[in-house]
Each structure stands twice: as C-alpha cells, then as structure tokens.
Amino acid sequence: MAAGNHTEASEFLLLGLSEDPELQPLLCGVFLSMYLVTVFGNLLIILAISSDSHLHTPMYFFLSNLSFVDICFISTTIPKMLMNIQAQRKDISYIGCLTQVYFFIIFSGMDNFLLTVMAYDRFVAICHPLHYMIIMNPRLCVLLVLMSWFIIFWDSLLHILPLRWLTFCIDTEIPHFFCELAQVLKVACSDTLINNIILYVTTAVLAVFPLTGILFSYSQIVSSLMKMSSAGGKYRAFSTCGSHLSVVSVYYGTGLGVYLSSAVTHSSQSSSIASVMYTVVTPMLNPFIYSLRNKDVKGALRRLLG
C-alpha cells in the first residue's frame, strides 16, 4: 500500500512455517491434531472441575480459568493458519491481523498472570495453612482474576492504538504463521520507535513482575518446607505444587527459548518454529500435566467419563 495511508491496506501475507507445498498437508494434519487435543483436553479439565464439588477450591478455580484461557490462546492463531493451508492462501485482512495481535496479547498475558496467581495460592496453602480459606476466600479469587483481565485488557489497547497509526506497503509479508506484534512492527513502512518503546516497557513490567512473584512464592515455600521435620509432610506439601511448577517451567522455558532463538539467529523461520512451542505445545501439555500428576483431577475425570 502507499506509505502514509494505511487505510488502503486490505490484507497482509502470512508466510507460515514452510513454503514447500509438499509439507502443507503434513502441517495441516499435525496442527489440526494438536488443536483438537488442546481444546478437548482443556474442556475436560473445565468440565471435571465444574462437575465435582471436591474441586470447588481456589486452586482448581484458577486451573479452570487457565484451561479456558489456553483454549482461547490457541484459537487465536491456529484456525486461521489451518484455513490458509486448506485454501492454499497466505492472506489475512488488515483488521484480522490487528485483531489477532490484540487477542494474542490478551491471552498470553492472562496465562502469565494466572500462573502468578496460582503460585501465590500455593504459597498461602503451604506457608499459612491455618488461614488458607480465610485469605483465599471466593471474593479474593474472583477479584484476582478480574484484576488480571482488567490490566491485560488495557495493556493490549496500549499496543493496538499506536499500531493503527503505522503505515504498511502493498503486499506486506509477515514471516510468521500468525500476526505477532514484534513481526508486524518489523514490516511497517513508518517509524515504529514509539511502538517499540511501549513493547519493551510493557514486556519488562508484565513479564518481570509476575516472574518475580512466582520466584518469591516458591522461595517462601521452599523455606517453609525446610522447617518441616516430617519427610512425609514435606512430600505431601510440595506434591501440591508439582503440576504448577511443571507448567511454569514449560511456559517460561519455551518463552525463553523463543527469545534466545530470535536473539541468536536472524532467521524468521527459526523464530516461527520456536514460537510453536509456547503458542501450541504449552497449551496442549497443560491438561496432561495436571491430569497425570494430580490424583484429584484424575478421580474427577474418571467420574465424569464414567
């Protein structure tokens, strides 16, 4: 499109993971399978928690919210990718691209916040067990989730509004399988200084603070466990953190892998492949981690399916 008038931009071109036509059916089959497994697995977790009164606790309330967010997270990117592969096209409308950026920021940020809130929940449960139900009352749990939605909603708007001021050239190609904010900024034809400043500042604030909260919570948990004299008590207490700690490790590990791959190599395709880990693989693994490592969830799933 002509520089200086972004309203003429009707579409962008998503280059995807590979331009090899022989790989397209394989990619379609693999990502369709992963998408269905993710949606079905997280729906089962939500249904199991909602149908079992034993799981109506703060920990599982946050877990059901995490499963809902994971379904929305993967649904932001994969359906459009599958549609393009099936239609043998690469286009995405200008509004569609901005919408994808907007919701991707919201759901990835909510994943971040919910993992932090769940770490705080485990901290209270282990370090202050006698006051757990008083502190983690239903009102506080709902308030924590609503606050997370509120903060990430405004953060996403903070990115989208300046993004609409940018200009793009005709047939702009985005070397990714979805509209990621950083990639969209790279292909803009106008100055992106303000956008990049907002991106770096908000990423630093909304990534560092939640991660610091998680690390602080687990440092206090480890400190409390060290004071316990019973080995069995230590194991039982820490076993309630096992699933959450596994999900945190996968989420931040894959996110760090994407960042390092982008920093080490300038290959857009390598960065796109690395992005698959936290946009697709992580939401797919979460139901398995929680169901395989948690007796309560396994029991609820058996009762639900039985």
**What portion of residues is helical?**
over 70%
Largest sheet: 3 strands, mixed
The topology string of helices and strands comes to EHHHEHHHEHHHHH
Structural class: mainly alpha
Give a short overview.
With about 300 residues, this protein is mostly helical.
Describe the structure.
It contains 11 helices and 3 strands. The protein has helices at 24-51, 58-75, 78-87, 94-127, 132-135, 138-163, 181-186, 193-227, 231-264, 268-292, 295-305; strands at residues 11-14, 91-93, 173-174. Helix 1 packs parallel to helix 10 (268-292). Strands 2-1-3 form a 3-stranded mixed beta sheet. Residues 1-7 have low confidence and may be disordered. The chain is mostly helical. The chain crosses the membrane at residues 23-48, 60-81, 101-120, 140-161, 197-216, 237-260, 272-292.
Task: Summarize the topology.
Blueprint: E1 11-14, H1 24-51, H2 58-75, H3 78-87, E2 91-93, H4 94-127, H5 132-135, H6 138-163, E3 173-174, H7 181-186, H8 193-227, H9 231-264, H10 268-292, H11 295-305
Parallel strand pairs: 1-3
Antiparallel strand pairs: 1-2
Helix pairs in contact: 1-2, 1-3, 1-10, 1-11, 2-4, 2-10, 4-6, 4-8, 4-9, 6-8, 9-10
Pfam families: 7tm_4
Transmembrane segments: 23-48, 60-81, 101-120, 140-161, 197-216, 237-260, 272-292
Main location: membrane
